[in-house]
Design a protein that fits this description.
Blueprint: E1 3-7, H1 11-23, E2 28-33, H2 45-49, H3 64-69, E3 72-76, E4 78-84, E5 89-94, E6 100-104, E7 107-110, E8 114-116, E9 129-130, H4 135-148, E10 152-156, H5 160-171, E11 175-180, H6 193-203, E12 207-210, E13 214-220, E14 223-229, E15 232-235, E16 238-241, E17 245-247, E18 278-280, E19 287-288, E20 295-296, H7 301-315, E21 329-333, E22 336-342, H8 345-350, E23 355-363, E24 374-382, E25 388-395, H9 399-412, H10 416-419, H11 436-449
Parallel strand pairs: 1-2, 1-7, 2-3, 7-18, 9-16, 10-11, 10-16, 11-12
Antiparallel strand pairs: 4-5, 5-6, 8-17, 13-14, 14-15, 19-20, 21-22, 22-25, 23-24, 24-25
Length: 450
């Protein structure tokens, strides 16, 4: 029997192993993961902390019985140390014992995911320091909240995890201060959508400090007291770090598997690395951005699942392709839904486009229908071709549907002029007769025509 060895048992790895076994049961599938838990939905961790999801165990994607039914062997606490591609072997350490072994393969899928990045600052350790990257982080924070009953928290980072954790800690009655070194929120969010997010956070009691330089970690014994910044000292009962992730690919150092400057594995449309019998998928990979045509590091669970499925199909002998992504994402800050796709104007200019932009505010429902609220839409297009390059949406409802519509248009390479006349659904409870997307597209077309 040919042997598939999968490094990493989260979304991409389990999708690939399941696909291979489904298409060709002759394959033996072994999944090794460095962590203590089988595949789970890490995106749900903030909502477990906030009490929206009752039990952290609900995040598990597959139970052991289902994994066994699929004919997949999963071994946990197994860390990949080195790839010996010439011998088709991976050197692995059993973390509980420290013993090392060599794992052979006929096909190898690397799906080792990402690791949290800590700021380069001394003193970032303590029993009240937390990340939010895996189940162990979630369990630790849950226990701390129950036992220590903290009244205040510092959240360092204003990306998706930072915003979601600020909301969910506040839901637990914790007073939250959110700090970030840059002035950015959700990385590429433009004005006035950024202003709406900040306004909503502050309206709900979250103090937001952007453009803050952290100088020192304030400590006493084993505990962190707070942070000394260029704006003064900030004290809290807990510190949560949400400053981003990097590909977990250090074990590939010295191997021929191609990686970019941050360590993300470079793959083709088949999720192949160019090294014989080695594929890669998920958060350890760069993916092709469909607007720029260039590799981009956009670690998202949706992408990981698709890449894993495509990689598995190709390992099993099919010919399938993963064309790429446009960076579609959505989140929520209390009562405000925020989503984006494609390129911002700054990103578009950096990629060589000549961006034109339109920003509008319109109602989420018909004006005479109760409820709803203001929706802010930002669109970016290329002046030379009229091609829609990206968009962002913020509002109290309907954001995901609108961003998904934009994602389809950006993926298809639609021109703003065509998008402005798109046949979108209308009924008073759901949208005005001119959807905010179409209003924004009409303004954008006018600007493109000058």
């Amino acid at each position: 029997m040919p042997r598939l060895l999968v490094l990493g048992g989260m979304a991409a790895g389990m999708s690939a192993a399941s696909k291979v076994r489904r298409l060709d049961p002759r394959w033996e599938a072994t999944v090794l993961d460095a962590g203590p838990d089988r595949s789970y939905g890490a995106c749900g961790l903030p909502y477990v902390v906030g009490g929206v999801t009752a039990d952290i165990e609900d995040l598990f994607a597959l139970d052991p019985e289902e994994i066994a039914r699929r004919g997949i062997e999963v071994r946990l606490r197994q860390k990949a140390l080195a790839l010996e591609e010439g011998r088709k072997r991976v050197v692995v350490e059993d973390l509980p014992s420290g013993a090392r072994s060599e794992e052979p393969y006929d096909a190898l899928l690397i799906s080792t995911g990402s690791r949290a990045v800590l700021p380069d600052l001394k003193g970032l350790q303590g029993d009240n320091l937390f990340g939010m990257h895996d189940l162990a982080d979630g369990r630790r924070l849950q226990s701390f909240l129950a036992d220590a009953r903290p009244r205040s928290a510092l959240v360092w980072g204003s990306g998706y995890i930072g915003i979601e954790m600020a909301e969910n800690l506040a839901a637990r009655g914790v007073s939250v201060t959110l700090v970030n070194r840059s002035q950015r929120v959700l990385k590429t969010l433009v004005e006035p959508l950024k202003a709406r997010v900040l306004q909503e956070l502050e309206r709900r009691g979250v103090r937001v400090l952007l453009g803050v330089r952290v100088l020192e970690v304030l400590r006493t014994g084993e505990r962190i007291l707070g942070l000394r910044t260029d704006r003064g000292e900030l004290y809290a009962d807990l510190l949560l770090i949400a400053t981003g992730v990097r590909p977990a690919t250090d074990f590939l150092e010295g191997s021929p598997v191609p990686r970019d400057g941050r360590g993300a594995i470079l793959v083709d449309e088949a999720c192949a690395t160019g090294v014989h019998a080695v594929w890669a998928a998920g958060d350890c990979c760069a993916v092709r951005h469909l607007v720029t045509g260039r590799p981009a590091y956009l670690p998202l669970g949706t992408t990981a699942n698709k890449m894993g499925r495509v990689a598995g199909a190709n390992i099993a002998g099919r010919r399938e392709r993963f064309p790429g992504v446009v960076g579609t994402a959505v989140t929520r800050a209390f009562g405000l839904e925020v989503g984006l796709t494609g390129l911002s104007p700054v990103e578009a200019a950096s990629a060589g486009f000549d961006p034109a932009e339109a920003v509008v505010e319109a109602g989420s429902r018909a004006g005479y229908y109760p409820g709803g609220g203001a929706v802010t839409v930002q669109l970016t297009a290329d002046r030379r071709t009229g091609r829609l390059l990206g968009g962002q949406v913020a509002g109290p409802e309907g954001t995901k549907g609108r961003v998904d519509t934009l994602a389809a248009a950006v993926t298809a390479g639609m021109r703003a002029e065509d998008f402005a006349l798109l046949d979108l659904a209308y009924a008073p409870p759901f949208a005005p007769v001119w959807d905010p997307l179409l209003v924004a597209a009409g303004v954008l077309v006018s600007r493109l025509k000058g």
